[in-house]
Design a protein that fits this description.
The chain is of the alpha/beta class. The chain contains 11 helices and 11 strands. It is globular and about 50 Å long. The structure holds ligand C2E and magnesium ion (3 copies).
Length: 277
């Protein structure tokens, strides 16, 4: 792509990402198109209770298989959408797909979470939209959860807490994603109406080989449980890691060890093959 466009005699590179502005522009217009063309879909990765050997939930993860660009990693197109304001429409598509999927699940007690970026959360009509959709799909309370990151909390903490309270009052759970990777103080934890923290994969990577790494994870789990929060360990790839986390007192895991993110169809099949609570 870059080669071809340079024939035109112009090529502007964005230093930070090494992506030409032209390519970004093309990507954005394809991304906009993709939402109406079903190229942007959600995949679902199981969240698993290792002790009970049962699926307890799924995380919805956006996938973009572009006719023009092939599979584009979420990190790339989410960032593009955030920077251009398109995240609002993208986020709404994700919410609708996720809620429709949650509605399809007949097994009681399974909760489906979706990711939200700070830009989405700060939209004035965000909570209204989520609640309207929650009612439209006639979802059971506790059947969906919103994942936020610490970066959502940096700017207007009180405002975010207010929004999250509105959602939790309707029975929507809140998970704190990538826990431990931000720079916020721990003091905010007690103010947040959250249900679970998700320990970032970077901590799990070290857990078997590194004693200090394991101590840190152990401490995070104790702290969260002490605050009555559930803990989900992310990016668990091996049985050793799963066992290690379980030994630290956390039985909820998500990662390739259980399953990669799969299509909605295949996720429903997983529910039948892997046991549920
Ligand atoms: P995240 O929410 O922390 O999602 C977890 C990421 O780890 C996913 O990458 C998942 O596929 C990957 N993962 C899970 N288990 C394993 C494992 O065992 N090994 C490895 N190597 N990776 C694993 P993905 O799907 O590429 O998403 C990356 C990030 O993009 C997400 O991080 C989230 O921040 C963002 N994202 C994805 N979908 C959405 C969305 O619909 N909306 C928003 N706002 N952000 C999204
Ligand atoms: Mg997440
Ligand atoms: Mg995460
Ligand atoms: Mg992450």
């Amino acid at each position: 792509e870059a080669k071809r466009s340079s024939k035109g005699g112009y090529e502007i590179f964005n230093d930070q990402f090494g992506t030409s502005i032209e390519r970004r522009f093309q990507m954005l217009s394809e991304l906009k198109f993709s939402i109406y063309n079903d190229e942007l879909t959600c995949y679902y990765q199981p969240q698993y209770d290792y002790d009970k050997k049962a699926i307890v939930g799924f995380e919805s993860l956006a996938r973009w298989n572009s006719a023009k660009f092939g599979m584009v990693p979420p990190i790339q197109f989410i960032e593009l959408a955030e920077e251009t304001g398109f995240i609002k429409q993208l986020g709404r598509s994700v919410i609708n797909q996720t809620f429709a999927f949650a509605k399809r699940i007949k097994n009681p007690g399974i909760r489906v979470s979706f990711n939200t970026s700070p830009v989405e959360l700060m939209q004035a009509d965000f909570t209204d939209y989520v609640i309207e959709r929650f009612r439209y799909y006639e979802l059971e309370p506790q059947s969906v959860a919103i994942e936020i990151t610490e970066s959502c909390l940096i700017e207007s903490f009180d405002e975010v807490v207010k929004k999250l309270r509105i959602l939790t009052d309707c029975g929507i759970c809140v998970y704190l994603d990538d826990f431990g990777t931000g720079f916020s103080s721990l003091a905010y934890l007690k103010e947040l109406p959250i249900h679970s923290v998700k320990i970032d994969k970077s901590f799990i990577d070290e857990i078997v080989s590194d004693k200090v790494g394991r101590d840190i994870v152990d401490m995070i789990i104790r702290l969260a449980h002490r605050l009555n929060l559930k803990v989900i360990a992310e990016g668990v790839e091996t049985q050793e890691q799963a066992q290690c986390i379980s030994d630290c007192g956390c039985s909820l895991i998500q990662g390739y060890y259980i399953s990669k993110p799969v299509s909605g169809e295949n996720a429903i099949t997983l529910l039948d093959t892997l046991k549920t609570c």
